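Sanity check

After download, print the first record. It should look like this:
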Amino acid sequence: MLLKELRDITVFVVLLLVFGICNLYAQELPKAPDIDKAAEPLVKAIEIVGIKRIEEGAVKGKLSQRVNQPLSRDKIEEDIKTIYRLGYFDDVKVETEFYEGGLKIIYRVKEKPTIVRIKFDGNKEFKDDKLHEKITIVKGSIADTALIQDNVEKVKTFYDSEGYYLSEIFPILHYIKDDEVNLTFRIKEGKKIKIKYLKFTGNKNISDSKIKKAIKTSTWWIFSFFTGSGYVKKDVLEDDIRAISDLYQDNGYVNVKVSEPRVVVDEVKPAITVVFDIDEGDKYNVAKVDIEGYHAFADAEIKKLITMKTGEVFSKKILTSNIAAVSEYYSERGYATVMVTPEVVPDEQTRAVSVYLKVEEGKIYKIGRIEAFGNTKTRDKVIRRELTLDEGDIFNSKKLKRSYQNVTNLDFFDSVDFTPRPQPDTDIVDIDVKVKEKSTAFVSFGGGYSSIDRLIGMVQFTQANVFGTGQYLKISAELGGISSLYEVTYKEPWFLDKPISLAESIYRLERDYIDYSRRAAGTAIGVDKRFADYYDIGALYRFEDVNVFNVTTDAPAIITDQTGRATTSSLTPTLTRDSRDNYVDPTEGSRNSVYVTYAGLGGSNAFLKSGVDSLWFFPFFGPTTLSFRGRYGYASGLYGKNLPIYERFYVGGISTIRGLAFGEAGPKASDGTYIGGTSQMLFNGEFIFPIVSEVKLKGVVFFDTGSSFGDGARFSEFKYTSGTGLRWISPFGPIRIEYGYNLHRQPGESSGRIEFSFGNFF
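Expected C-alpha cells:
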C-alpha cells in the first residue's frame, strides 16, 4: 500500500514538472510566431534542403536572416522572395525546429528542372542550325520561365525581321524526369509579308518624303534582296522614333512626341502598313546661348566654336555639333575628361528656348603607359611606331584617332580597340591597345576566269607580316589564255626604323593583244616618306626591257613602228594625301595623289606621263557609303620619240570604265584596233551597301563615265556605263564581281560585260 502511494506521488510530481516545463517553453516561444517582439529565440542554424545542382553556400549568401541573430518574420518573408528571384527554384517552404537551445531554420526548395534537349518544330523556312544561332538558351540551362520567354522573343524578332510578321512561337516543356525536361519551340511561320506602305499622321510642317529619308524602315523594293529592308524590325522601329524626334528637334520642334509605331497587317493582299503618329508641337527659336565653366582658354576661342545664334530656329543637330566641337577642342589639348552638359529651357509664351552649356574642364592629362595586348605574333614596336602619340606627351584625341586608323590600316588584325584609362588622383592617362591577330600568310593555288585575261591559273605566296616585323613579301605566278605574269615583291615599311618605306620588285610579263604581242621584264625600286599624318611623298625608279613581236601585217603604223626591243628607264615622283578611315574597306575620308613619270634616264624610250587621282568616301544613311572618283592623265613622247604603245591610256575594264572592253573607251585605228590615248578623263560614282555584314559581303551600284583621247582631240564622246556587283573581303583578299551595262552603245560594241578581279577594290 505504501509503495503504491509513493508511486502515485512520484507520477504526480513528474507530471507537474512536465507541465511546468511546457508552460515555460510556451511563454518563451513565439505564437504563430510573433517575431516582432523583443524576446525572440536565436537562430542557431540555417539549412537548405532539396538542392542538387546549386551550391548551398550560393543560396545562403543571399539571405538576410543570419545565424546567432533573433528570428525575424520580415527577414524570413524577404528571404523566400530572394530565393525565388534566383530563378532556380519552383517552390520554397520554411520550417523551424528546436536546435541547441534555439531554432534551426529549414528552407525546403524544389529546383527547376534542367533542359536536356532543345528542338524546333514547324520551321520550314529556316533550318534548326539557323534558329539555334538566334537563341541564348543552351542545353544544361535551368528551365526558367523568364529565360525561356526571352528566347521566344528572340526567335519571334528574327522571324519578324525576315518578313514573317504573323509568326507565332510557343514554348513547350516535356518532362523526362522530375528534374529533366525537353524544350520545344513550336513555330507557326505564317505568310511572309513585306512593308507596302509607310504612313505618317500629324506631320503638318515636315513632309512625308523628308521623314522617310530620316528613318531606316522602308517599303520593299528590288534592292531589298541585298539590303534586307522592307520588313518590320522592332529594333529599327525604335531607332526610327528617335530619328523622327531628332528631325523635328533639328527644325525647332522641341516638344515633339512620336508614338509607338502601329503595324497594320492586311492578310488578304498580304501587306503591312507601318503608321507613325506624330504630335509636332510648336516651333521654337533660340532666345539666347550661354556657355560657362571654362577657364583654360580665352573667351573668344571658345565662343567661336558656338555656331548656334540668337533668333535662329533651334536645332538639336547644331547643338550636338557645338558640344562636340567644344569637347574636341579641349580633348585635343590634353583635357581627356572634359564634359559639356547642355540644358535647354523652353518658354511656352515666347516660343523660344534658352540654351545653357556648362563646361567641366577637368585637368590636363599626359600619356602614361601605352600597352599592347593580344599581339601574339606582331612585335610591339610594329604597333607602337604607328602611334602618333608617345608616352609623356600631352593627351590629344585627334592623334589618338589617327593612331587607331594607322594600326587598323596595317591589316594585321581582325579587331583593334584603343581604350584611354585616366588614373585616379593623377594627371596620367594610360592607353590600352587591344588587338586580335589574323592570318597574314597565304598560299593559294587555283584557276578561274578574269574579264581581262580570260582563263587563268595562279599560284601565289603572300606574307604581309614576315615574322611579325611588318615586312611584306609576295611571290606569284599567273598563267592566262592571253597573258602570263611572274613577280616577286618585297617591302620594308619602316626602313632603319624610320617612317620611310622601301619596296623592290622584279617581274616578267607576256601578253597578247589583237595585232601584236608584248614581252616585258623589269625591276622597280620605290622609296616613300610619310609626314604630317596624312601625307606621303615618294619616288619610284623602274627599268624595263620590252619586246613587241608577232605584229600582224595589217597592224596600224603606230604599232608596226614600234616592233622590236626597247628599254625604259624612268623616275616617278608622287605626292599623296590619304585620310581614309580604312584602306581595305573605307567609309569616309579621301585619297588624293599626283604623279609625274619622266622616262629618259638612259634607255631607248623617252616620254613624260603625269596624272591626278582623287577618290572620296562619304557615310550615307545607316551602314551605306557613297564613293566618288575622278582621274585625269596626260602623256607625250620626248625628244622626237613616240609615246610607246604600251604606255598609252587604255580605258575600259574593271579598273576604269566597267562594262567596256580593254581600251574600248578610246581611240581606234582604221581597222578598229584599240590603240589607247595620250590623255584620259574618268569619273566613277558608287553606292556601297552591306549584304551580310558578318562575312564582310557588300553590294555596289555604280555609274562610270569617261574616255581616253588621241593627240589634239577634244574632251568629248564620253562613254557611259552603269551596273551592280558584289564585293567580298575574303580571308584571302578583296574579291569583286561586277556587271556593267553600256549606256552609250555604238555599232559593234557589246551591251555589257561581267567583270572579275582579285586583290584590290576600286
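If your output differs, re-run the checksum step. Summary of this record's structure: The longest strand covers residues 517-531.
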